[in-house]
Amino acid sequence: MKVWIDQDLCTGDGICTDHSPEVFVMLEDGIAYVQQEGQVLNDPGGARGLAAVPPEHQDEVLRSSVECPGECIFVED
Predict the structure, then answer these.
(1) Cβ–Cβ contacts within 10 Å for residue 3, how many?
(2) Element (H or E) spanning 63, and its range?
(3) Partners of residue 25 on adjacent β-strands
(4) Percentage of residues in the chain with pLDDT exceeding 70?
(5) Is 52 helix (H, G, I), strand (E, B) or coil?
(6) Residue 57 carries which DSSP code?
(7) Partner of 6 at 20 to 30 A CA spacing, among 15, 29, 31, 56?
(8) What is the pTM of this model?
(9) Residue 22: strand, helix, or coil
(10) Residue 42 in contact with residue 64, Cβ under 8 Å?
(11) Largest Cα–Cα distance in the chain?
């Protein structure tokens, strides 16, 4: 499973970081990004910042994508 965030849709609520701080991170701009193995994928962000999700965090990431008020979290198989 892979995940990315559309930063144009992100509302900065931080629900994703509450559910899965190992995969999501909020930066100084108040927007969420994905991270992989501790590296923030913010350059580029969006669909080109696609992160692999470790199996132990997949349920958390799916819950984040469903509960995100900005509907900005996109999960791909």
Answers:
(1) 26
(2) helix 58-67
(3) 33
(4) 100
(5) strand
(6) G
(7) 56
(8) 0.93
(9) coil
(10) no
(11) 30
The residue type of 59 is D
Joined tokens for residue 29? 């701009």
Residues in the chain, overall count: 77
pLDDT for residue 47 is more than 90? no
3-state helix, strand and coil shares in percent for the chain, rounded to the nearest 5? 25, 25, 45
> Chain-centre distance of CA 65, in angstroms?
8
38's CB contacts (< 8 A; 6+ apart) are none
Identify the H or E element spanning 15. helix 15-19
The residue written with tokens 């995969």 in the block is 23
Q: How far apart are CA 58 and CA 10, in angstroms?
A: 20
Q: pLDDT tens, 10-42?
A: 999 999 999 999 999 999 999 999 999 999 999
Helix (H, G, I), strand (E, B) or coil at 36: strand
